[in-house]
């Protein structure tokens, strides 16, 4: 989907897509993913900047109201529309993080999220590759071990099949179920 490639058509299938309109939905989802990157990068810093401007404007209006009441000019509060409550005490502008730092932190978080998403996708592809390796390994075990027991002829075929089946069963359980299953479990657990 990310490579934006068409699925090759095969004769045994009626269509190359899993469902009608698959390519359109894939392109929409891919577009949404790429639009979310600048959104993650810029939305929070711009909202903080807007909130700081509003708080600064509110503080300026409050200071004008305070100076007007000290001077006895009550008309100024009506014209400035500053009958709101003052900004909370103890909030010093020097304590606020500079906007450059906020942009840098948001950039770091965005890069971390995009790289994490890519890494998780690669990890799920690794799980898929492990399942393909399991299939190949079971086919090799079938062909190299159990199939040998089926080719023995005569009265010894029952004994040979019994021995070959025991070897095949032990290898299947020890390699496929325990070792490869533990590997897939650990990958999945890490992702979750």
Automatic annotation (TrEMBL):
Belongs to the V-ATPase 116 kDa subunit family. Residues 70-92 are annotated as: Disordered. Residues 77-88 have a biased composition (Polar residues). The keyword Transmembrane applies. It is a multi-pass membrane protein. The chain crosses the membrane at residues 24-43, 159-186. This is V-type proton ATPase subunit a. GO terms for molecular function: ATPase binding; proton-transporting ATPase activity, rotational mechanism. It comes from Dendroctonus ponderosae. InterPro entries: V-ATPase_116kDa_su. Essential component of the vacuolar proton pump (V-ATPase), a multimeric enzyme that catalyzes the translocation of protons across the membranes. Required for assembly and activity of the V-ATPase. Signal peptide: none annotated. One of its GO terms (cellular component) is proton-transporting V-type ATPase, V0 domain. GO terms for biological process: vacuolar acidification. The keyword Transmembrane applies. It is found in: Membrane. Keywords: Hydrogen ion transport, Ion transport, Membrane, Transmembrane, Transmembrane helix, Transport.
């Amino acid at each position: 989907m990310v490579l934006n490639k068409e699925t090759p058509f095969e004769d045994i299938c009626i269509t190359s897509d899993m469902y009608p309109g698959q390519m359109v939905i894939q392109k929409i989802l891919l577009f949404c993913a790429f639009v979310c990157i600048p959104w993650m990068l810029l939305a929070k810093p711009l909202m903080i900047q807007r909130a700081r401007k509003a708080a600064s404007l509110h503080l300026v209006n409050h200071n004008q109201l305070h100076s007007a009441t000290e001077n006895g000019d009550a008309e100024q509060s009506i014209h400035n529309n500053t009958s709101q409550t003052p900004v909370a005490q103890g909030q010093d502008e020097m304590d606020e993080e500079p906007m450059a730092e906020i942009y840098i932190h948001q950039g770091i978080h965005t890069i971390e999220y995009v790289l994490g998403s890519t890494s998780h996708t690669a990890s799920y592809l690794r799980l898929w590759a492990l399942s393909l390796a399991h299939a190949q390994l079971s086919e090799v075990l079938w062909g190299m071990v159990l199939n040998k027991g089926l080719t023995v002829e005569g009265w010894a075929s029952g004994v040979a099949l019994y021995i070959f089946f025991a070897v095949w069963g032990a290898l299947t359980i020890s390699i496929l179920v325990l070792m490869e299953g533990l590997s897939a479990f650990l990958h999945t657990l890490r992702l979750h």
